[in-house]
Amino acid sequence: MYKIVKKQELTTNIYLMEVEADRVAKTCEPGQFVIVRMDSESERIPLTICDYNREKGTVTIVFQTVGAGTKLMAQLSEGEYFHDFVGPLGCPSELVEQPLDEVKAKKILFVAGGVGAAPVYPQVKWLHEHGVAADVIVGSKTKDLLILEKEMEAVAGNLYVTTDDGSYGRSGMVTQTIKDLVAEGKKYDLCIAIGPMIMMKFVCLLTKELEIPTVVSLNPIMVDGTGMCGACRVTVGGKVKFACVDGPEFDGHEVNFDEAMRRQQIYKTAEGRAMLALEEGDTHHGGCGNCQ
Amino acid sequence: MDVLKRIPVREQDAKERATNFKEVCLGYNKEEAMEEASRCINCKNAQCVKGCPVAIQIPQFIEQVKNGNIEEAYRIISESSALPAVCGRVCPQESQCEGKCIRGFKGDPISIGKLERFVADWARENGIKPTPAAQKNGKKVAVIGSGPAGLTCAGDLAKLGYDVTIFEALHEAGGVLVYGIPEFRLPKTGVVAKEIENVKSLGVHIETNVVVGKSVTIDQLMDEEGFQAVFIGSGAGLPKFMGIPGENANGVFSANEYLTRSNLMKAFDPDSRTPIMHGKKVAVVGGGNVAMDAARTALRLGAEVHIVYRRSEEELPARVEEVHHAKEEGIIFDLLTNPTEILSDDKGWVTGMKCIRMELGEPDESGRRRPVEVPGSEFVMELDTVIMSLGTSPNPLISSTTKGLDTNKWKCIIADENNGKTTKEGVYAGGDAVTGAATVILAMGAGKAAAKGIDEYLSTK
Ligand SMILES: Cc1cc2nc3c(=O)[nH]c(=O)nc-3n(C[C@H](O)[C@H](O)[C@H](O)COP(=O)(O)OP(=O)(O)OC[C@H]3O[C@@H](n4cnc5c(N)ncnc54)[C@H](O)[C@@H]3O)c2cc1C
Ligand SMILES: Cc1cc2nc3c(=O)[nH]c(=O)nc-3n(C[C@H](O)[C@H](O)[C@H](O)COP(=O)(O)OP(=O)(O)OC[C@H]3O[C@@H](n4cnc5c(N)ncnc54)[C@H](O)[C@@H]3O)c2cc1C
Ligand code: SF4
Ligand code: SF4
Ligand code: FES
Ligand SMILES: [Mg+2]
Predict the structure, then answer these.
(1) How confident is the model at residue A282 (pLDDT cuts 50, 70, 90)?
(2) Band of residue A291 on the pLDDT scale cut at 50, 70, 90
(3) Which has the higher per-residue pLDDT, A251 or B128?
(4) Searching chain A, which residue's CA lies closest to the CA of residue B243?
(5) Which of A181, B300, B357, B361 is the most exposed place for a label (fewest CB within 10 A)?
């Protein structure tokens, strides 16, 4: 059992939890993820490692409630426990594996969309701790949905906030800010984009044009997270990869995003039913034929 | 009684069981078991024993069943096997013990598997447990993986007094016994969980949610956590795909994903929150036990199911009993048929599978006749789901993170068959991780041999 030592509602429907998980905290690196289960009947839910404290033996996750699984997860309170918490899974971000002087020589731009700010944060923090100041663009739909702004500010070189509706910071999608920065004369050697699949797709289309190599972190459907099931397969550079062991980070210019987005929809109907069952409790039995 | 004929075993009716996940075979009761046992002629030079990879003293245990001494029969089986309730259910007996039974020359071989299962079930129902070691020797051994190989190795070492911890990547112990083989062949709570409890009652600790190679490495286990030896029983869990066009369409799954969702994640239970594809027309590509299990699961979830296999019935690698049960339940066998492409609609969902007919040519390296394509015989099967069951290979997670641990060209860990010794000192391995996908009993046998090897190694230290 893995104790939740801190729970915070960052904004509507986005939660941060710091969890006791000694083995994960000891060995994890930025870019990796965990799989959690709330109780003995729960689904296995993959979440990126957002922060870790090796001394305390804790790992921080940040998640958005989107369906039945994450809704139930949000009901857990400080002092309660996760039934399962396994990791670190996947490969560490390439940045932490490369020789530091090579990394230092690069001008790096992070692009985070929505809850994607969470997985971007540990990488920017790691770079900051190793003396590298990276620029960061954080985009959200609206001011209320913006997360981790202060934390990011403390570790980023320049932080650019943009909201789709213009309610805070710059106005428009993250791609607009990238265009603006480049137009202002900024040059980048590497872009790391993490957020909804559709955002990563459009960032990649743009950075390909701008000739900025781009890394993305994919979040396909997963079951085991160890290479056993193949649910997470994605096509990168025409080759089939298992995101849980070969990724989750890949060369964004090589990813087949349309296929990846399509594959995220495989269980849409079943997920919708699970959500209904959760919201309507005992009144929903399934199988009545009224909700096909 | 006709001594040439087996005492039939009671089974759930085929029509009925095709719609539920309860166990298909109901097993013998004591009278039936004693009667079947009485057919055994207690051969002096018993061939059946030679067919059993762990050499259970078959005539001796059957003799006890004949006399109604079931507890003694259990004691005899336990000398050689740690998981009799499992092996009695899933061993390919027709090619092992029963395949060699002298009775088989003229009539039906003795139902050794069903007798073994009866004895194990009886022992469990009557609360008979293996005895823990009297004295601990204070030496720590780590076992990676909680499948049949790991459980057996851990149990044997614990009986010898070792302090054993099993590290399991998934959230539940049991390996393929919990995530792969379905409830209707091997009940999880009723049988597998009880066998695991037995191993725990010997003093074995099980730490779930530890992916060795990621959460911790073998070197760390040995250098920092004080384990003096390690046994690797991590199985062969990496699924193969065909590499044909369209294979990433929505509705194409590996058998591992499909079965894990149904078994480990309980999607077969309508109250479970785990989603699973409820296909209407499903093709399962492959002909092994895994393919039969995936097909029969899909059938129970309401689909019309086709097994698509490129060779003929004779070459089907699955156990004869499973093929027989599958046919009874209404699975359709499309033999000598090979997929060439998966077709999908404009939203990317499977609509069909292009196949080509095959015929058998000259024998290949495996001695089986090689299937060759019949020119111009392409056709399309309309489908909404395809389950790929083409075999699995060992996961490189451990070998790639352990210096000095050698593998062969199939990524299988190199280990000595007699004692499990690998190329790294203090590290032993066995089961599917060494042989590639094989059987429960072979994995168990390898776990046993490695326990002996580890004991010999640590006794001299
Ligand atoms: C490597 C990785 C890292 C991730 N990191 C984060 C993170 O840091 N924060 C965060 O909020 N979310 C993250 N996600 C996404 C998160 O796992 C899903 O939002 C969650 O599983 C949805 O479950 P649900 O039951 O609440 O929703 P559902 O209603 O069941 O599903 C909603 C959508 O989420 C996706 N999804 C559902 N089940 C899974 C699954 N088992 N694996 C992957 N995706 C699934 C599907 O696209 C689905 O359509 C990550 C996913 C992956 C693969
Ligand atoms: C669907 C199916 C049906 C089958 N039917 C039959 C049958 O009828 N009869 C028969 O004899 N055989 C059958 N088999 C084959 C048989 O189940 C296997 O040969 C046997 O389980 C192998 O045992 P094992 O202990 O080597 O590995 P497994 O049972 O595969 O167990 C390995 C365990 O190690 C864990 N693991 C892997 N990597 C790590 C890691 N890095 N760290 C920690 N843990 C790890 C896995 O999660 C797993 O729990 C079937 C197999 C399948 C998949
Ligand atoms: S363990 Fe398997 S092969 Fe050996 S006697 Fe039992 S059923 Fe036969
Ligand atoms: S070969 Fe058959 S008849 Fe002979 S001892 Fe074995 S089970 Fe009995
Ligand atoms: S999640 Fe199962 S192989 Fe990647
Ligand atoms: Mg869900």
Answers:
(1) low
(2) very low
(3) A251
(4) A240
(5) B361
Instruction: From the CA of A230, give the closest atom in ligand 5.
Output: 3
CB A145 within 8 A of CB A169: no
Token representation of residue B155: 């149990």
- The pLDDT > 70 percentage for chain B reads 100
Report the pLDDT averaged over residues B41-66.
Answer: 94
The verdict on the CB of residue B53 being under 6 Å from ligand 2 is no
Q: Which of B234, B392, B400 has most ligand 2 atoms within 8 Å of its beta carbon, as the pocket-test mutant? A: B234
Q: Residue A287 above 90 pLDDT?
A: no
User: Looking up tokens 């969902």, which residue turns up?
Assistant: B349
The residue of chain B with its CA nearest to that of A40 is B171
A181 Cβ under 8 Å from any chain B Cβ: no
Q: Is A238 exposed, middle or buried (0-12, 13-18, 19+ CB in 10 A)?
A: exposed
Pick the closest to residue B354 from B386, B329, B331 (CA basis).
Answer: B386
Query: Secondary structure of A162-202 in the HEC alphabet?
Result: EECCCCCEEECCHHHHHHHHHHCCCCCCEEEEECCHHHHHH
Burial of residue A111, with CB atoms counted within 10 A of its CB: 0-12 exposed, 13-18 middle, 19 or more buried: buried
- Torsion over CA of B294, B298, B300 and B304, rounded to 10 degrees? -130
* Residue pLDDT, tens place only, B5-24: 999 999 999 999 999 999 99
Over residues B150-199, the pLDDT tens digits come to: 999 999 999 999 999 999 999 999 999 999 999 999 999 999 999 999 89
Residue partners of B237: CB distance under 8 A and separation at least 6? A226, A227, A228, B256, B392, B394, B395
Task: Indicate which residue's Cα is closest to atom 36 of ligand 1.
Answer: A221
Instruction: Judge: A229–B257 Cβ closer than 8 Å, yes or no.
Output: yes
Q: Is B338's pLDDT higher than 70?
A: yes
Amino acid making up residue A13: N
Using a CB-CB cut-off of 8 Å, the residues of chain B touching A43 are 265, 273-274
A98 close to B (CB below 8 A):
no
- The alpha carbons of chain A give a radius of gyration, in whole angstroms, of 19
Both tokens of A186, joined, read: 């900024």
Taking the CA of residue B215 and the nearest CA in chain A, the distance in Å comes to 6
Chosen for mutation from B144, B171, B212, B260 (greatest number of chain A CBs closer than 10 Å) is B171
Residues A227 and B394 sit within 8 Å (Cβ to Cβ): no
Phi, psi (deg, nearest 5) at residue A85: -155, 95
Residue nearest to atom 4 of ligand 4 (CA): B43
* DSSP element (H, E) containing A19: strand A14-20
Ligand 3, pocket residues at CB < 6 Å: B 52, 54, 56, 58, 81, 87-88, 91, 93, 96-97, 112-113, 116, 441
Nearest alpha-carbon partner for A248 in A193, A202, A210, A211: A193
Q: Tell me whether A37 touches chain B (CB under 8 Å).
A: yes
Question: What is the value of pTM for the model shown?
Answer: 0.94
Distance CA B377, CA B286 (A): 20
**The tokens of B376 are what?**
């111009």
